[in-house]
Design a protein that fits this description.
The complex is a heterodimer of chains A (224) and B (167).
Chain A: E1 4-13, E2 29-34, E3 38-42, H1 49-57, E4 63-69, E5 72-73, H2 78-83, E6 85-88, H3 100-108, H4 116-125, H5 139-152, E7 157-161, H6 169-186, E8 189-193, H7 197-202, E9 206-211, E10 214-220
Parallel strand pairs in A: 3-8, 3-9, 6-7, 7-8
Antiparallel strand pairs in A: 1-2, 1-4, 4-5, 9-10
Helix pairs in contact in A: 4-5
Chain B: H1 3-23, H2 26-44, H3 48-52, H4 55-77, E1 78-79, E2 90-91, H5 93-96, H6 103-135, H7 142-166
Antiparallel strand pairs in B: 1-2
The chains are: A alpha/beta (224), B mainly alpha (167).
Chain lengths: 224, 167
């Protein structure tokens, strides 16, 4: 397979996450994600979806095995990795009392290629005012803002942790159209976690099913 | 781009971010360190020879210097985004942790701010200590300088380092 964007090789947790009965660890995660596709991670709550994203974006390496982004281990140069990742999650924090535009100006500067104009265009496309205060945004608006912010630095890999959960069904359709546009224009890939069955069936190119920290299945999402 | 150049650019980006961070809270943020620095400088006016015999005075001075350290760093390590809204105060680093910036550089820049503030405070403290000791009729020794340097530079730098490590 050519043009591999992200590859996981025998990724397992070093320490279990949580305590007692709730403790679990990711075990033996293997997959290859080529450039230009949407991969979905599905699983029950507590299956390890957020932990998976944490391992890629977190400050410290908490796994053994390898995550290779464009052939390079992500913790070999983590800043390089984060410059190529657009992470969207409810856990992300911004400056709550400032507007979307002010946040983009303050935080976008850390990226090597942040495009303020693209950010504004995306916000317009999402129908969210760039002068709206981030702390006053609804859950859906907050995710739209995050996606615009992530897209503006032209990442190679989007990581979307339950990003579509707060979106209305009409916008969700458009959202996948926007993702497909991004994939085509910027040559990137997307990994998203979701519970929504309709999305899994129609929108995802690859699906990995996580259960208790293991991929019980992974493969191309072929129509039934 | 070599590593040194990259680190320099990273620190520049953090300083730019801090300027913006400070724009709204700057005047308020300087009031408390200013106030406690004034108290500390007044206390530095007490000659070392008198401080040695008064443990209460020494302890008060240490507490005041701790407050100076905390209030100098506070606007950089906490985002008081919410005094009006949700009374929420959370760490600046939590806003940056998923961005391409290292925690090491983030800490070093803040240590730099603290050092820049403290060396001036220590210098002023040394001048006041020497002047007051001389006025009191005592002899200025190297211990007077060491006392001020330890109290107003070394100790708060260590405190700041700990605060940044845990914050």
């Amino acid at each position: 397979m050519t043009n591999i964007l992200l590859q996981a090789k025998e990724v397992s947790s070093i320490k279990p996450r949580g305590f007692g009965k709730k403790a679990f660890r990711l075990q033996g995660i293997n997959f290859i994600l080529p450039n230009g596709y949407i991969m979905g991670i599905v699983g029950k709550n507590g299956a390890g979806k957020t932990t998976f994203f944490d391992y890629i974006c977190g400050e410290k390496k908490k796994y053994k095995g390898e995550f290779l982004l464009e052939g390079r281990e992500i913790f070999e140069d983590h800043l390089w990795t984060l410059d190529r990742i657009g992470f969207v999650s409810e856990k992300n924090e911004f400056m709550d009392l400032r507007t979307a535009a002010q946040n983009a100006q303050m935080l976008g500067g850390f990226y090597s290629d942040f495009d303020g104009e693209l950010f504004e265009n995306m916000m317009e496309r999402f129908c969210v005012s760039k002068s709206k205060t981030v702390g006053k945004m609804s859950r859906g608006e907050f995710f739209k803002f995050q996606i615009a912010f992530a897209a503006a630095h032209k990442p190679k890999l989007f990581l979307l942790d339950e990003a579509t959960a707060g979106m209305d069904p009409v916008f969700r359709q458009d959202f996948y159209g926007i993702l497909r546009d991004l994939i085509q224009n910027e040559s990137c890939s997307v990994i998203l976690s979701t519970h929504i069955e309709e999305e899994i069936e129609r929108q995802l190119d690859y699906v990995g099913v996580l259960e208790e920290g293991r991929f019980i299945s992974f493969g191309e999402n072929l129509p039934a | 781009m070599d590593n040194k150049e990259r680190a320099r650019r990273e620190r520049e980006k953090i300083r730019e971010f801090d300027k913006e961070l400070f724009r709204y809270t700057g005047q308020v943020a300087w009031f408390l360190p200013g106030l406690f620095s004034f108290i500390v400088l007044v206390m530095t006016g007490i000659p070392l020879q008198a401080v040695i015999t008064d443990r209460g005075m020494a302890a008060t001075c240490v507490i005041m210097v701790t407050w100076v350290t905390y209030f100098v760093l506070q606007p950089y390590i906490n985002v008081t985004d919410s005094l009006m809204q949700r009374q929420k105060k959370s760490g600046t680093w939590s806003r940056l942790k998923f961005l391409p910036v290292s925690k090491g550089a983030y800490r070093r820049v803040r240590e730099g701010y603290l050092f820049r503030y403290l060396w001036k405070l220590a210098l002023a403290g040394c001048i006041i200590q020497c002047a007051m000791t001389a006025l009191d009729g005592g002899t200025v020794t190297v211990w007077n300088f060491l006392y001020v340097v330890c109290m107003l530079l070394v100790y708060p730098l260590c405190m700041g380092w700990l605060l940044l490590l845990t914050g």
